[in-house]
UniProtKB/TrEMBL annotation:
Name of the protein in its database record: Tetraacyldisaccharide 4'-kinase
Transmembrane segments: 7-25
Enzyme Commission code(s) on record: 2.7.1.130
Function: Transfers the gamma-phosphate of ATP to the 4'-position of a tetraacyldisaccharide 1-phosphate intermediate (termed DS-1-P) to form tetraacyldisaccharide 1,4'-bis-phosphate (lipid IVA).
Pathway where this protein functions: Glycolipid biosynthesis; lipid IV(A) biosynthesis; lipid IV(A) from (3R)-3-hydroxytetradecanoyl-[acyl-carrier-protein] and UDP-N-acetyl-alpha-D-glucosamine: step 6/6
Organism whose genome encodes this protein: Flavobacterium limicola
Catalyzed reactions per annotation: a lipid A disaccharide + ATP = a lipid IVA + ADP + H(+)
GO biological process: lipid A biosynthetic process
GO MF: ATP binding; lipid-A 4'-kinase activity
CC per GO annotation: plasma membrane
The entry's keywords: ATP-binding, Kinase, Lipid A biosynthesis, Lipid biosynthesis, Lipid metabolism, Membrane, Nucleotide-binding, Transferase, Transmembrane, Transmembrane helix
Annotated ATP binding sites: S47, V48, G49, G50, T51, G52, K53, T54
Similarity remark: Belongs to the LpxK family.
């Protein structure tokens, strides 16, 4: 923790007090939460920064979309538009945000919507001719105006909310007690060989409430990179000269998976909007070499860099153990909620 953050500790106390009062008012019904007559799963975190929400949403889409009509609803962070938008053929990363556009391109059978006002977004989705049967709320753990039926809380391995502080001293958006609202807590970005002893230690540090389920996941990288019209095995480009570009939080694992001593690395802030200057820099550094980026960045860079040079590396969230039990928990909730309708 740097000195400036330590000096801002009084503001962290104040911020924590404000968020605690807000949560208390929602808990007591002074501030109204709205429920809806369909299964709603909210995925989020207590902290700012990347905890792996996008691959977790994609995991849920794969689990549910073969059986149900699924919609995702995000705020569309850093999009150049306002209000409710339902993705269509005219949508792009600028109009709906990079992560929603990624969902839209990868999963054509689902509805993808954005709206900073989640209540309005849900109402708009339910007013469509094709109504969803399930809505997945992306990054909505603090959106108390909507009462989801099921909450999944993510926390990163090595950066657990139990060890963090309130903003601006730490990275917490609300008090650690907010974790009590979660049905399931997932520790993301773990080593794939995380021992049972360390899992048990983390369980104790998180101090789960009664009935909460805990899971551990790791990021599984694809063994291929993908371009506009072709794919290449990672092993074929591992030792080739290339440019690696990432505009995500904590890009180090992405770089290390592909790295070569001859590679050029370019790291940008999370959800970075690439400027003409950035594009020119990437082109100059790449020359005729390939450019590999993250899937999220690819949807923003596509069209600005040569198709024959630009590729992305896909990732998925994988459970160290207990995936069958997690799937059953989700499917049981959705099935019961659907029958109750």
């Amino acid at each position: 923790m740097n000195l400036l953050r330590k000096l801002l500790f009084p503001f962290a106390i104040l911020y924590g007090l404000i968020t605690s009062i807000r949560n208390f008012l929602f808990d007591k019904g002074v501030l109204k939460s709205y429920s809806f007559d369909l299964p709603i799963i909210a995925v989020g975190n207590l902290s700012v920064g990347g905890t792996g929400k996008t691959p977790q949403i994609e995991y849920l889409i794969r689990l549910l979309s073969d059986k149900y009509k699924v919609a995702t609803l995000s705020r569309g962070y850093k999009r150049q538009s306002k209000g409710f938008i339902l993705a269509d053929a005219n949508s792009n990363a600028a109009t709906i945000g990079d992560e929603p556009f990624q969902f839209f391109q990868k999963f054509p059978s689902i509805q993808v919507a954005v709206d900073a006002d989640r209540k309005n977004g849900i109402e708009q989705l339910l007013s469509q001719t094709e109504k969803p049967e399930i809505i997945l709320l992306d990054d909505a753990f603090q959106h108390r105006k909507v009462k989801a039926g099921f909450y999944i809380l993510l926390t990163s391995y090595g950066d657990l909310y139990s060890d963090d502080f309130m903003l601006p001293t730490g990275n917490l958006r609300e008090s650690r007690s907010g974790a009590d609202r979660a049905n399931v807590i997932i520790v993301t970005k773990c080593p794939f060989n995380l021992s049972f002893e360390e899992q048990d230690d983390i369980r104790k540090r998180l101090k789960l409430s009664k009935g909460q389920e805990l899971y551990f996941t790791f990021i599984a990288y694809d063994n291929c990179i993908y371009g506009e019209n072709r794919k290449i095995k990672v092993e074929e480009v591992q030792y080739a000269a290339k440019v690696l570009v990432a505009g995500i939080a904590k890009p180090e694992p992405f770089f290390s998976y592909l790295q070569n001593s001859n590679d050029v690395y370019l790291s940008f802030p999370d959800h970075h909007n690439f400027t003409d200057k950035d594009i020119l820099e990437i082109k100059n550094l790449a020359q005729n070499n390939i450019i590999i980026t993250t899937e999220k960045d690819y949807v923003r860079l596509k069209g600005s860099l040569p198709n024959e040079q630009l590729f992305y590396l896909s990732i998925q969230s994988s459970f160290i153990s207990g995936s069958e039990n997690f799937n059953k928990t989700i499917l049981d909730y959705v099935g019961t909620s659907t029958r109750n309708r």
